[in-house]
Amino acid sequence: MSVDHAHTHGLVHDSIKRSAEGVRAVLLALGVLAAAAAVQLVIFILSGSVALLADLIHNFGDALTAIPLGIAFVLRSERAERMAGGFVVAAIFISACVAGVEAVERLVNPSPPTHLWILAVGGVVGYAGNFVAAKVRTRAGRRLDSPALVADGMHAAADAYVSLAVIASAIVVAIGAPVADPLIGLAITLVILRITWQSWRTIQGHEHHHDDHHRHVHH
């Protein structure tokens, strides 16, 4: 009886520990993204660059995926975590759609960005923030065996690509090839769509793995 009790106690302890680690990873990534978005906001106010505003809104929206994930870890609920994973995949897909629509819009009505230096700096800030957030989430997600957190890491990686596109756009317009700007946008859209698919597979793959595990346990 005492052995059994110790075993359950151990499980509860692990579950609480996992919950705390998950919340810590989510909050750390959120802090990094919020700091990057704040710097971008200052740069936007100074420059008035619309392209940077798009990246900025995007980063704020992305930081919000931390909320359902954080709640799932606090509740220590696998179902809530899976739902949060679905929410993250949807957010990545929306990112791809926004990037695609924007690229097509710029192909139809070319409006090359101005304030190129400031725009490039804003892109670098966005890239750095998302790169760090992606690392934090992916590492913690793998350690805690949380596909939703790994998917959110992929999400930050997708956003890092969007920020790279902002930097690349500033460069091509400076060189004098503004037509490349929307083409970069379309390329990034394809990259994000691929990440959407990979993150969907990440979540689905874990569910099957989990079901198999349950089946083995029951047998």
Give a written overview of the molecule:
This protein has 219 residues and is mainly alpha-helical. The protein has one domain (2-206): Alpha-lytic protease prodomain-like (Up-down Bundle). 90% of the residues lie in helices and 0% in strands. The chain is built from 7 helices and no strands. It has helices at 2-47, 50-63, 66-75, 78-108, 116-143, 147-175, 180-218. It is elongated, with a radius of gyration of 20 Å. The two termini are 24 Å apart.
Query: Biggest sheet: strands, sense, closure?
Result: none
- Helical amount: over 70%
Number of domains: 1
Q: Kindly name the structural category.
A: mainly alpha
CATH class: Mainly Alpha
- N→C terminal distance: 24 Å
Give the SSE order as H and E letters. Answer: HHHHHHH
Our estimate of the beta-strand percent is under 5%
Which CATH architecture is right? Up-down Bundle
CATH topology: Alpha-lytic protease prodomain-like
Short description:
By secondary structure, the chain is mostly helical. It has one domain: Alpha-lytic protease prodomain-like (Up-down Bundle).
